[in-house]
Structures are given as C-alpha cells and as structure tokens.
Amino acid sequence: MKVLYITFCAVLLDTITKLFVKGFSIPMLDIQVSGMSYGSSIPLIGDFFRLTYIENPGMAFGIKVFNKEYLALFTIIATVGLIIYLYKIRNESFWLRFPLALILAGAIGNLINRVFFGVLFGYAPLLHGNVVDFLDVDFFDLQIFGYSMSRWPVFNFADVAVTMGVTILLISSRFNNVDEPDKIIIKNTK
Q1: Which residue from 2, 37, 159, 187 has the highest number of Cβ atoms inside 10 Å of its Cβ?
Q2: Into how many domains does the chain fold?
Q3: Within a 13 Å sphere around the CA of 85, how many CA atoms are in the beta-carbon half?
Q4: Could you count the other beta carbons within 10 Å of the beta carbon of residue 50?
C-alpha cells in the first residue's frame, strides 16, 4: 500500500495550493494568507497559462448537480471503494496501483472542498462546499453542438491527478496487458 504515499502527497499539494489561492488564517499562530480575489487572474505564461480563482459548486467543468449532499456522499462511497480495491490489489502491478492512487487523490482532494470548505470558510453547511479551481489554460477554439470554447475550463491539482490517473491506466492497460486470452481446449473424441 506504499502507493498511498503518492495519494497523500497529491492531496497535500492540492489542498495547500487551494488554501493559498482562497486565502486562510490561523490566528493562534498569527498566520494570515490573503489569497486571490474571487474571479481575479494572474498571468504566468502570457495569456496561455494563468491562475484564475473561481469556485465550482457542481461537478467537473461546472456541471450542475441535482443535490450537493448526494454528490458528496457518492464521492465518499467511491473513495472508500477505491481504498478497498487498492487494498485488494496491493500485490498487483505498480502500473495498476499507481494510477488508481492518483484517481483516489483527486477524489479526496475535491471531497475535502465539498465536505469541509463551506463550514471552514463560513459560507455553507457540511457537504455543501464549493471546489476551488485556479489552473487556467488557453485552448484552441473548439465548437461542438453549437457550444464554443476558447479556453479549457479552470481546474485544480485534484483534477490533474484524476486525469493523469485515468490516462496512465488506459495506456498501461493497452501496453501492459498480461492477461492471456482463454485457451480453447479441444478434446479428442476418438
């Protein structure tokens, strides 16, 4: 279960970056980080890559959800399921466990926002928090079904972890497929 160190590091990176973007204070340690103003942008590589602070109340890409509690509870169940599955496959290939550890990190990172950020920052009850997004990348102009997109939707490191995990899982399953096809046994009837 050493891959859980990867999960831990990715969740830590995701949470710390979100806190610095949003801003936080720890009065007993006299720490105050002002963060970014909501909607503000800081260009890092011209207009191609910016830090843009937004909050996502829904799912990926701002898709609205029917009920925030159900989304949070579904994510909790999926997270527990991933942990159990990682335990069951603890002796399997690293290229199966590593991407699942990244996907788990992404689920936990955004789950922390959904479950706790509303309460911690005083804007919503438990399970009603918004996910902090801040990575903003220019994208070639794309038009699908009458919807045009010139920038990729703003995302965070949890989203990066999930995307990397799914990509690695797909690639490794394609190139590291060790399962042999079922052998056909033909009995001699003579």
Answers
A1: 159
A2: 1
A3: 14
A4: 19
Asked whether the beta carbons of 82 and 100 are under 8 A apart, the reply is yes
Q: Quick check: is 137 in a domain?
A: yes
Residue spans of beta strands (DSSP E) within 46-156: 49-56, 131-144, 147-151
d(C-alpha 109, C-alpha 133), whole Å? 11
- Read off the amino acid at residue 66: F
Does any domain span residue 188?
no
pTM: 0.88
Residue type at 150 in one-letter notation: S
Helix ranges, 89-156 (H): 94-112, 118-120
Residue 161, domain extent: 3-175
Q: Which residues pair with 50 in a beta bridge?
A: 43, 136
E strand segments, the chain:
24-26, 31-33, 41-45, 49-56, 131-144, 147-151
Reported as a single tens digit per residue, the pLDDT across 8-59 is 999 999 999 999 999 999 999 999 999 999 999 999 999 999 999 999 998 8
Place of tokens 């997004």: 133
Lowest mean pLDDT among 66-80, 83-97, 115-129, 151-165: 66-80
CB 139 within 8 A of CB 151: yes
What six digits make up the tokens of 17? 């970056």
In a domain, 75, yes or no: yes
Q: Which long-range contacts (CB under 8 A, 24 or more apart) does 142-150 make?
A: none
Catalytic site positions: 133, 159
